[in-house]
Amino acid sequence: MFLQNEVIKWACPSNIAIIKYWGKHGVQLPRNASISLTLSKARSETGLYYSPKVEEKSKIDFYLDEVLNESFANKIVSFFDDIIHLYPFVKNFDYVIKSHNTFPHSSGIASSASGMGALAMCIAELEVALGLSLKIDIQKASHAARIGSGSACRSLLPVAGLWGEHCDYTNSSDLHAISIADEVHNVFHTYHDDIVIVSAKEKSVSSRAGHGLMENNPFATVRYTLANNHMTSLKSILQNGDVDAFGTLLEQEAMTLHALMMCSAPSYILIEPKTIEVINLIRKYRAESKDPLYFTLDAGPNVHMLYPHSYAERIKSFIQSEIKPLAQSGLIIEDQVGEGPVKF
Ligand code: PMV
Fold first, then answer.
1. What DSSP letter does each residue of 299-338 carry, written as one string?
2. Which atom, in ligand 1's list, is nearest to the CA of 110?
3. What is the pTM (predicted TM-score) of this model?
4. Which of 18, 19, 20 to mutate to test the pocket of ligand 1 (most atoms within 8 A of CB)?
5. What's the whole-number average pLDDT of the chain?
6. Three-state SS for 342?
7. What is the distance between the alpha carbons of residues 13 and 11, in angstroms, rounded to a whole number?
8. Ligand 1 centroid vs 204 CA: distance in angstroms?
9. Across the strands, what pairs with 19?
């Protein structure tokens, strides 16, 4: 017998890619393997209310911060269709989904990774609640999250997630992410990611379109080879805790991502003048202080500043005095590496 109006709630963090996923094929399959650090504070908190469906088709109501959002609800209808081979029971219910992001709406931070991650965890737990599985299958949940939004699959793993098949990493797969937390030096477990919001405007070119433009990018093949080589280099860097080698690779990946955008056809630019100002200040500070403060960028203008906890006092004081004045409305989201999704 089905339960009426039961609820399952999961919070899932965002993640920041060290080796970037940029270029895809088929159903969200990556052109190259990627690795990210899992964050903790920037997360989505999602409640999945479910009851036996009343009509032939499942009904889904989606609320973002208590406001009904029809366009998200439509996306979730197709997401549920797309994961039916993994979780056939999803078609048996009507749903009310209530979601909230801990980062401000106006921050320009994409919520697709944390949002899809949280929803995938709710579905994975529903499988357990229905007695169809003895425990949550993270691999399967990560597979479903990937179908929702590629990089979301890495958010389900503690500390660091690896997605995409690569010869140096056993059990790596294009279908889902795996945890490499045990192979990561302690110093990276303490990492901070302070995100300078340079602009909160919606991106002029979406990630989906950006991935698509990689198909005809003249540097695509070179990029995929480079990403594979970076995956190899990062493995030993993560093991031995070399924070400067880590940072150098981090910045190279960010610059490559944006260079690829600039030489796409049509070409586009997502960084802004202030992005470059922040980058120059970070590099100047690093040259003078020798502190391992390095940056990376997502597909947008905001700058992620990464550094180990042992340097936090000095680096935070530099950020307050020199970087904060460049942030839109002074907004800097102070995050740290975390343990992945949490039930609440
Ligand atoms: O998962 P998507 O389709 O939003 O693409 C993510 C792309 C980057 O954030 C630029 C890189 C990554 O690996 O997260």
1. SSS-EEEEE-GGGHHHHHHHIIIIIGGGSGGG-EEEEEB-
2. 4
3. 0.96
4. 20
5. 96
6. strand
7. 7
8. 15
9. 35
263-317 tens-digit pLDDT:
999 999 999 999 999 999 999 999 999 999 999 999 999 999 999 999 999 999 9
Residue indicated by tokens 């140096």: 168
Residue 81 neighbours by CB under 8 Å, 6+ apart: none
In angstroms, the CA 265 to CA 109 distance is: 26
Q: Tokens 């990029």, residue? A: 223
Give 240's contacts (C-beta < 8 A, 6+ positions apart). Answer: 185
Query: Going by CA atoms, what residue is nearest to atom 6 of ligand 1?
Result: 151
